[in-house]
Each structure stands twice: as C-alpha cells, then as structure tokens.
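Milestone M4 deliverable, item 7.
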Amino acid sequence: MPNNPEKLRILFLITDLGKGGAERFLIDLCTELQKRENIEFIIAPLFDNNQYQERTSLFTIVPLHYTEFRLFHKNEFPVYKKLLDEFKPHIIHTHRFLAEFLSAFYLQKGVKYICHGHDNMVQMNKLSINTFISKELILNFFEKCFLIRKKYKKINTSFISNSSHTDDYYKRVLPGFMNPNIHLIEYGFNYNQFFKKNKKPYKKGEILKLINVGSFQDKKNQIFIVAIANELKKYEIPFEIHLLGDGANRKKVQEAVNKYKLGNEVFFHGNVNNVEVFLWESHIYLHTAWYEPFGLVFLEAMAAGLPVICLDGKGNRNLMIDNKNGYMIFEQNAQKFAEKIIELCINKEKFETFSQYAQTFSKNYDIVKSTDRLLEFYKTELENLS
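Output delivered:
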C-alpha cells in the first residue's frame, strides 16, 4: 500500500467505474494528477466493475467489496477500514451517493471530507408529504438523516456542485449550517483527446451525420430522437443518427425505430471505447435529455468541432451559449429541432462559426485547468482544517 509522508494523499471513493460522466471525469482527473509532483491517490470503488481497464492500468485501485447496509445490525466494512489505516489519506473525496454514505463510517480526525455532487442526489431531498408515498423515498430520507447525524454534525464536509443547477439544489436541501461549505467547481475533460482540427461542415450530397451519447434511461429521453428523425425525413437531405450507449430503455427506443421504419437512419452502437472517433465523423451533436446535471459529453462534442442542439436539461445551461455554440430548445418540439438541424446544414458560414466557437469555449474546461482549480480548492480546504 503506497504511503509517502511527503505527498498529498487523496482517497477517491466511488460506487464503481462503469460508463458515466462522473467516472470519466475522475479518470481524466487522476490521469492528470499522475503528472503532478507530490501527489498520491488511490481509487476505491465500492464494487469491482471497471469498464476502463486500459485507461486505469497504472492507477492504484482497491475494490472495497461493499456489502449492503443493514438497519439494526452492526455494519462493518473491513477493507475500507484497512485502507484508511494503511493509506492515511489527507483528503477523502467521494463520488456518487453510496460512496458518500460509506464515508460516514470510521470518521478520521484531521482528514478533509469532500462530496462531489455530480447530479442532484435524490437522497438529499427535503422531507415532504410525498416522502411517505413510497418505501424508496422513505429510505432516501432515512439515509440523509443518517449522514447528517453520523457525519455532517461531527466532521466538516464540503460539497462540490458541478453546475449552477446542482449548486442551487444543494443549497436548498442540505442543512443551513452546511451552506458555506457548498462550492461550485465545474468539470474538466481531456480536451486534446477530442479535439479535431479544421472540422468540415456538411456538404450537399453527403449524408448528414448526427450523434447522441448517453445511457438509455428515462432522463436521457432518446425516445424523442425517434420523433426528430421522423421530422427530418420530411426534408430532402439523407441523414443518419448514431446512438452510443446502453441501458434499460434501449429496447424501447429500438422498437420505436422499427415501428416507424427508421432502421436505415438510426443506428445503435452500444458502449464504445472510442467515442471521439464517432464524434469526428459526425456533423452535429444532438442531446434530448430533459435533465442533465452538467453535460460532460457536450464539451467532448464541442472539442471535436460539433455544434450542439439540445433540450434544456437545467444543468447544461452553463455550457450552452445560444446561437454561439449551438441551440438550446426549451420545449420538446421535434419540428423545432429539425429546423435548427437543417439550418446548420444549409448555412455553411454559421456552421463554421459555431464549430470554431465551440472549440474555443470547450478549451476552458481542459482537465489541466480543472485540476489546477481543484488542487487550489484542496489546499484552501486543508488550510481551513488546520
């Protein structure tokens, strides 16, 4: 177990390393941290599910083999306790709710605890009359009370929100005494991995290629893409929409594609390891999520030179400069989406202006700059701790 007394030691707790924005951000962050002097880190996933084997091969990863919390029983997490005893972290930085829940055990004096709010964690919601309509909501509220009693009232915990929307949420739902500890720090990503020089606009006679990346779950709303595809068929422009990702709703979306005979226009690729290649081969990034806590994939698409056309997902408002790097549409209207798509097809000058602005804008979120900001935040938090 690495433990250099002269280095800043950071323990990252995360539910697992499955496909997702939080996981990609953590991996990009750790890749950059490896280049920095006097920093040592361990990633401790609660479950041993690593879908980034190649990218994490040089990381120290310690699966915690988390077992379900049991009410009215003594809960022990020996692998986590041993890791704390041996690594002796200065910072414990949690990602996802279950990791934050685990961090309430074996609290360490002199350690800075940080919870990363990658989205509006529903477990943190306030008590309301609706809380009592389902067992899940009651459990969520119990877990929040557990964290407040066992952790937040005993040890200073800072929250990082990744967008103005998540920032407002945590300031609204967390106890008032925690509000000074909520900080807005936006994501970063590996800009160079996705950057594409001299992005070419759509040319008449080509197949217009649109792309969407995301897990197939309700909030991602890929079913609406079928309606957009239907609308696009009214125009005399051949097109393809490439859907990357997997999830519970994929079958439902595939069935809708078959129902409307869109099999020659809409393609499913599942989870892929080379998202950037698909982006480079596309013209426009299409995003139909009705809730998006930040929108890391927006930045990846912009770095590739793609204008973005999206539904208002609340958290993605920080990233969309309307009529600059794309269009944000505030109602689920397939005709409006299709009109904006066609507008960027036929207006080459506008496409190129949007593409260049998107690349310039997204570069501000490069992981090097993001890591600098986070390390400065760590430094300040540790100074306040002492």
